[in-house]
Amino acid sequence: MKIERTQWMASNSGPDNKSNGYRPGQAIGHGRKLSLRIPRDRLGKFQPVFWAMLRDQHEEVRRLCFELYGKGLSASEVGQVTEKIYGQAYSSSAISNFTQSQRRAKRRKFRRQSGIEAIIGHLKTDHRLGQNYLHGSQSPQINAMLAATGWNLKKWMQQAHKKIKNAIFRWSEGSQSFAYFTIN
Question: What number is the average pLDDT over the span 139-155?
C-alpha cells in the first residue's frame, strides 16, 4: 500500500499535499485477523485499492450469512460456517442482525422497483410508451425520452393548476394577498 501511495502522490497530488504517516486498520481473511498500517495523505484523498477489497469482504460475510440463513441453516450453524471460512465466529444475535439488515435493504429495493413499475405502466397507457411510431436505431430511446417529458409536463401542469386554484380561492375570499404578491 505504501508503493500505491507513492505512485498516487506522483500522479495525482498537488503541491500542498504530502504523505502523512499511517492510520490503523483491521481486516479478517482466511481465518486470520490482520492488523494493518494504512498509508494516508495530508488532504485525505488517497484511498488504497487493496484496503477497499479487504473492507468489501465484511459485506461479503453479511451476504453469505443471509444466503445460508435463507437456505435453512440456523444462526448457530451459520456462525460455525463463518468461523471455518473466516476464522471469526459470529454470535446468533449478530447473524440475526446481518439477516435483518439484508432483508430491509431488499425490501427497500423492491418498494422502489414497484413504485417505478407503476409509473412505467402509466407511461405506456397515457403517454404512448407502449407503441413506438418512430423509425431508426435510436427511436426507442427518443420515444422513452418523449414519454418521460410528457409525464413531467403533466405533473408540472397539475402543480400549476393547483397553485392557480389556490390563488383564485384566496382572492375570492377577499384576502389582501394574491398568490405571491401583496396588494396594498
Answer: 88
Go through the chain and tell me how many residues it has.
Answer: 184
Show the CA angle centred on residue 36, arms to residues 34 and 40, nearest 5°: 155
Is 3's pLDDT higher than 90? no
31: left (phi over 0), alpha (psi -120 to 50) or beta: left
- CB-count burial class (<10 Å; 0-12, 13-18, 19+) for 29: middle
Of 171, 167, 124, nearest to 143 by C-alpha is 124
Note the pTM of the prediction, 2 decimals.
0.37
Q: Is 26 helix (H, G, I), strand (E, B) or coil?
A: strand
Rounded-to-integer distance, Cα 34 and Cα 22, Å: 15
Q: What integer is the mean pLDDT of 21-50? A: 73
pLDDT of res. 162: 92
Return the closest-CA partner of residue 182 out of 165, 167, 166.
Answer: 167
Rounded-to-integer distance, Cα 136 and Cα 72, Å: 51
